[in-house]
Amino acid sequence: MSESAAACPLPSKRDSAGACVPCESLDPSSLMSSVDLSAAVSAECPLWTIKTSSDGVNKLSRSYVAKNFVSAMKSLNDCGEICEALGHHADLHLTSYRNVEIVVYTHSVKGVTRNDVELCKKLDGEVKVAYSPKWLKENPAAVGTEVPKPLPKEE
């Protein structure tokens, strides 16, 4: 088993021989069908949308507005640490100082695999965001993924 496969914590990324799939193979058979991808996004990572690039590559995208620049950068850095640990790198974008977009797909096979869905779920579960209050109010599906509010101090 290679070093990258041994370090891979996503169970769906290993084949029966223990190799990291598709990280170590350029096998397009690992791409999810449009039907399976739509079902997985709806059921498992509803904060994400499917985008198709001009060259026909499906990608998973999540956008949000952070409370401020520092909050946006913290969420991007947290995403980056997770992606680096997994060896599965998302495209991270920051515009207008607090508008964040995360784009996930498997570059080597030019599309979305099961690993990408797993990464999206992991990012949703582990990266807590200090959202813009207005954005959070307009996007109630994100409730529960925000930075917890401090408990009121007892007098």
UniProtKB/TrEMBL annotation:
GO MF term set: 4-alpha-hydroxytetrahydrobiopterin dehydratase activity
One Pfam family matching this protein: Pterin_4a
Recorded catalytic activity of this chain's protein: (4aS,6R)-4a-hydroxy-L-erythro-5,6,7,8-tetrahydrobiopterin = (6R)-L-erythro-6,7-dihydrobiopterin + H2O
Biological process per Gene Ontology, one example term: tetrahydrobiopterin biosynthetic process
EC number(s) stated in the UniProt entry for this protein: 4.2.1.96
Protein name (record): 4a-hydroxytetrahydrobiopterin dehydratase
Keyword Lyase: yes
Enzyme class of the recorded protein, top EC level: lyase
Keywords for the protein's UniProt record, in alphabetical order: Lyase
